[in-house]
Amino acid sequence: MIIPFFIMNKGCPNRCVFCNVQKVAGKQRISLTESAIRETVLSYIRHARREPDEVQVAFYGGSFTGLDRNDEIELLGYVKGLMDEGLVHSLRVSTRPDYIDEEQCDLLRSFGVKTVELGAQSMVDKVLELSGRGHSAADTERALKILKIRDFATGIHLMVGLPGDNRDKFTYTINRCVDLKPDTVRIHPTIVFENTALARACREGRYKPLSMTEAVDACKYALKRFSSANIPVIRLGLQTTSEMEAAGSIVAGPFHPAFHALVEESIFYDRACDLLSQRNVAGKTVTLAVSSRDISYMHGQKNGNIKKLTDRFQLNKIHVIPNAELQRGAMILI
Hints:
The protein has helices at 21-25, 34-46, 69-84, 102-110, 125-130, 137-149, 167-180, 197-203, 212-228, 242-245, 259-276, 295-299, 304-312, and strands at residues 2-6, 56-60, 90-95, 113-121, 153-160, 184-189, 192-193, 233-236, 250-252, 285-290, 317-322, 331-333. The chain is an alpha/beta fold. It has 2 domains: 2-257, TIM Barrel; 274-333, no CATH class. The strands form 3 sheets. A 7-stranded parallel β-sheet has the order 1-2-3-4-5-6-8. It has a 3-stranded mixed β-sheet with strand order 11-10-12. Helix 3 links the parallel strand 2 and strand 3 (90-95). The longest helix is centred in the last third of the chain and has 18 residues, at 259-276. It is globular and about 70 Å long.
């Protein structure tokens, strides 16, 4: 169980062109006091459907190691107290690659931090520069090396469709990150939020966001590439907040509340096409077997995959059935 707290852009030395942290994280409804953090943790545990194997507190929404050192130690201390009581088992923080060094790692380790996620966004320096990130790809490589030497679990956060980005550059970013071997990855397409520099650039024609098809295709490649390297992608797309859903919050970009599902559905469509193209199936009824957990991905939203496959291969009908022996992602044409 991960219990998130948001530091609301604190610790960041600059403002990225795409950043509107209130839209992404939502309004912070929990004050970061010792008593508020404690009550929130207890509430999560009380309302869990089953007793969690591990309770991890996470500080998101800013650069944790960029906070004033006293503030950082104070927040870490609040959670360390809960760890000493056995209520919390570990800590997770997100930060900038250029705000990680040996001293910071020693501090984080002393308070029980287990996982550090780095906001890399891209491994192409020109893309980082145009996005106002203020760090380089080399900073990400250096930070990951320091964290791995000290046995932290590592995560990388990536974005596709940033200013100056294209498919070749994003492919380079994915392949470079595979080489770096983080423990987990998060990916989301660039969304243009109101009250950002990117919104102004978009209105002035200086930035063109990805289409939904482009975003799905790029993230499909990324998901397959990381999966083949046994690196879990723990999030695809932004988690929807009520602030995002407010009228006028999103100016442009490939936002979908179920973006991860769109990517998975596209992968299953491609796999089904590969299987069906190997046989003469026109006019026939066919059966595709998948893991029970993949049934919805195979069907697609509003049965979209089934309709497209039926039309493309001139099928009479498609049955989709669960097969308990199949691993997730596998498919059999019966």
